[in-house]
Amino acid sequence: MNNIGNLLVILLMSISNYALAMIKDHNKLVRNSPLSYEEAVEVAGLMVNSWNILSLDLRGCSLGAQEISIVASALQLNNRLQELELSNNPIGDEGMRSLGDLLKDHRQLQVLRIDSCDIGDAGAWILISALAQNTTLKKLSIAHNPMHKSLKKKAVKTLQNKSEINYKKLFK
What is the pTM of this model? Predict the structure, then answer.
């Protein structure tokens, strides 16, 4: 079993008071400060074990590709999440691979915010491919990422049939 598989087994264990304290209300999980690798595992565990959380706000938590992989794996097991805020995290192209896999399979996610996440051209292609397969996303924000302008246009073309996409934010 790989590291992610081992971590998912750990996630099924009890969740600490630290993770439970992050719940703002019954259906929203918010944390807006840096998370360690271990804390990312706790958040993922909470997502696996809490089916009532509809919104996850992890903006500015210093989540890199490894942490995003853990969170995305857990979210594949929790198919109720409707809103995911990951802006201002160093996700990069490698982390976009995990998010791309999540987007392809998740059937409830309606809002995704990944502004200022260091997503470049390779990550943009992953995003475009995943969005072509996703049927539920209604709102997307990917401003301030180092993608080539032509790829942003490709993303717009891919998303043109979706409602409420903020096209202006795609070109900032």
Answer: 0.78
